[in-house]
Design brief:
Number of domains: 2
Radius of gyration: 16 Å
Number of helices: 1
Order of helices and strands: EEEEEEEEHEEEEEEE
Structural class: mainly beta
Strand order of the largest sheet: 6-5-15-14-11-12
Strand content: 25-35%
Largest sheet: 6 strands, antiparallel
Number of strands: 15
Length: 170
């Protein structure tokens, strides 16, 4: 457990930012890059009518995966949380997205710092644009800001020009 020096909230071990106030919990000098293994993800793929390839969700402790279509990367969404903000880190930004898309050329693709949110409620998965500058699309249709949309396994979302296929555990 890590105690925030700003608000004294007790955070999970490994957290970089306080979930209560958003303050940075570790110094920049102590940060290190780590490889995330995707070996546990299934190799099976199925074609959908969209023409995209989809894999089943098999990541350890994941309720959904974000399949970045341009790079092929797969980012699992942990079952520890039912709600994730998607965006990119920006210098001096006090509140960080849960899923940082900066390493995937997010700035050039037009992803906002806090672009969208994906959340699970029981067996339903909802998605919402957070008033992003370059818009959010679901299967090619532009979403209205701050209006939740239901997601299904294999749906394609676009944050600006960054295309992501949603792989939801059944």
């Amino acid at each position: 457990m890590i105690v925030c020096s700003n608000c004294k909230h007790v955070n999970m071990t490994g957290a970089m930012f306080c979930v209560e106030c958003g303050a940075q919990l570790v110094g920049r000098d102590s940060l290190s890059t780590q490889n995330i293994s995707t070996d546990s993800l299934g190799k099976a793929a199925s074609k959908r009518k969209t023409g995209e390839i989809g894999q089943p969700v098999e990541g350890a402790d994941a309720w959904a995966n974000l399949h970045l279509l341009d790079t092929g990367q797969v980012l699992p969404l942990s079952s520890r949380s039912g709600e994730f903000t998607l965006g990119r880190i920006s210098e001096g930004q006090p509140i960080m997205p849960d899923v940082d898309l900066s390493p995937y050329n997010a700035y050039a693709a037009g992803v906002s710092r806090l672009h969208a949110v994906i959340k699970r409620s029981g067996s339903n998965v909802k998605f919402m644009d957070l008033g992003s500058a370059n818009g959010t699309f679901l299967n090619g249709a532009r979403l209205r800001p701050n209006v939740e949309q239901k997601l299904s396994h294999g749906d394609i979302i676009s944050l600006g020009k960054l295309r992501i296929q949603i792989l939801i555990e059944k």
